[in-house]
Specification:
This protein has 342 residues and is of the alpha+beta class. 47% of the residues lie in helices and 8% in strands. Strand 3 and strand 4 form a beta hairpin. Helix 2 runs antiparallel to helix 3, helix 5 runs antiparallel to helix 6 and helix 6 crosses helix 10.
Length: 342
């Protein structure tokens, strides 16, 4: 389609590159006026877009938001019940876990609204349960972006829901400690992966790959993880996906004892420390796709001013372009900082 014919809300069907093959906007981005103007500035005349049938009416978008909210609330409540029963010595209700995974999977086409909703979860008191649900949603998106099959995506979701079940056996005084854990306390905390694995090991309905994902989600590509210090190809893909989803959500969510960082600060950590410990392919896919879906969200700057994210450069995902009123702020050129995103 000619760029001049594109409208705000049009969805790109392919990456848009400059004549020097530099990616400007990635596939599946929703065009806004800022991006359209930049395409013109770069002299680009045509882009690949989805047909108008792919554009979702505003009323449909609102229904999608309500569906995500309902699905999320139900998943958190049911998971809370399942984990409480497990902590009381009952067997894991795997039927409910499979039902929850289908509930999460039902939102797979609503990636933009899923990301926006998860970004605004601030339930510090129910963190144990909401964290597992968050990780399941992020894991679903990563698996989708990796082009896994629906069956594999559903299994990844289940690993996300179950990855921290071993924490129900960790003493509350360690689990909720506000200060830094002692070496002995951290050893107890690390044991949650084994406790979680052993709690589901004998359940024949659960696939071995799901069990392995629960056991290995704290393993790291450089061998620095636990419980066995596995490296790179020794770690299954499901565990690699959950590792990234787990750390990202833990970093960006508020806790009783700490405030979460904003997504761009999390991206910076992944691009520095994370490149050596997480799977490069999975991490690259996660960062590229998540960053592009942050356009349209609002931020609060350190001076108290509010602005809208209008563009996240694929080559510099930690430095978005913001719009406040009629003024654009290029974070690559600005010394101001983003305090929070909503």
């Amino acid at each position: 389609m000619q760029v001049s014919q594109c409208k705000v809300g049009t969805i790109l069907a392919e990456d848009v590159k400059t004549y020097h093959r530099i990616t400007l906007v990635v596939k599946d981005s929703v065009l806004n006026q800022y991006i359209l103007d930049r395409l013109v500035d770069y002299g680009l005349t045509h882009v690949w877009v989805y047909t108008s049938d792919a554009l979702v009416p505003k009323e449909e978008t609102n229904r999608e938001k309500e569906l995500i909210q309902t699905s999320y609330a139900e998943a958190a409540q049911v998971l809370k019940q399942v984990l409480r029963e497990l902590s009381l010595g009952k067997k894991l209700n795997y039927t409910q876990i499979t039902q929850l995974s289908k509930l999460v999977l039902g939102n797979i086409t609503n990636r933009v609204n899923v990301i926006k909703y998860l970004n605004n979860i601030k339930d510090k008191d129910e963190y144990t349960y909401t964290h597992c649900v968050n990780v399941a949603f992020y894991a679903m998106l990563i698996a989708k972006w990796l082009n896994l099959s629906n069956g594999e995506i559903e299994e990844v979701i289940q690993v996300g829901l179950l990855h921290d079940i071993g924490k129900v056996f960790v003493p509350d005084e360690i689990l909720n400690k506000q200060g830094k854990l002692s070496e002995e306390e951290f050893d107890v905390m690390k044991n949650h992966v084994l406790l979680g694995y052993y709690s589901i090991k004998e359940l024949m309905d659960i696939s071995p790959l799901i069990k392995e994902g629960v056991l290995s989600h704290h393993e790291r590509s450089d061998g620095s993880g636990y419980p066995y210090g596995l490296r790179e190809n020794e770690i299954h893909l499901f565990a690699k996906i959950i590792a990234i989803a787990d750390v990202y959500d833990a970093m960006t969510q508020d806790r009783v004892y700490k405030k979460g960082v904003n997504p761009f600060e999390a991206f910076e950590m992944f691009q520095t420390l994370g490149m050596g410990i997480f799977d490069i392919e999975v991490l690259t896919v996660f960062l590229k796709n998540l960053a592009m879906n942050l356009t349209g969200l609002n931020v609060i700057l350190e001076n108290g001013e509010r602005a809208e994210i209008v563009y996240v450069p694929p080559y510099e995902i930690t430095k978005p372009v913001l719009r406040t009123g009629t003024t654009f702020i290029d974070m690559t050129q600005s010394k101001t900082k983003i305090l929070s995103i909503f």
